[in-house]
Amino acid sequence: MHAGAQGVKRASRPTFRPFNPVASAFANTLLDATGVRLDQLPLTRDRVWPGLRDAGLTDR
């Protein structure tokens, strides 16, 4: 807080960035575990299963 001629001013809230480190960490975990690179977010089951199937890792 800063006390100036106009009184006490509060600090502004921090800016929230649209970055989710969990998503990239999960994508890297899939790459390490399976060798499949999924580069389109969000990583939904509708994107993960076809990627694994195309790599021949599942028959689902």
Topology readout:
Blueprint: E1 2-4, E2 7-9, H1 21-34, H2 45-54
Antiparallel strand pairs: 1-2
Apparent shape: rod-shaped
Q: Topology as H/E string? A: EEHH
Helix content: 40-55%
Number of helices: 2
Radius of gyration: 22 Å
Largest sheet: 2 strands, antiparallel
Average predicted confidence as pLDDT: 81
Query: Strand tally, please?
Result: 2
Please state the structural category: alpha+beta
Low-confidence stretches: none
> What is the CA-CA span between the terminal residues?
58 Å
Sheet with most strands: strand arrangement: 1-2
Q: Which percent band covers the strand fraction? A: 5-15%
What does this structure look like?
The chain has a domain at 21-60. The protein has two helices and two strands; from the N terminus they run E-E-H-H. It is rod-shaped. A two-stranded antiparallel sheet has the order 1-2. The protein is 40% helix and 10% strand. Strand 1 (2-4) and strand 2 form a beta hairpin.
Name a few traits of the molecule:
single chain; 60 residues; alpha+beta; two-stranded antiparallel ribbon; 2 helices; 2 strands; 40% helix
Short description:
This protein has helices at 21-34, 45-54, and strands spanning 2-4, 7-9.
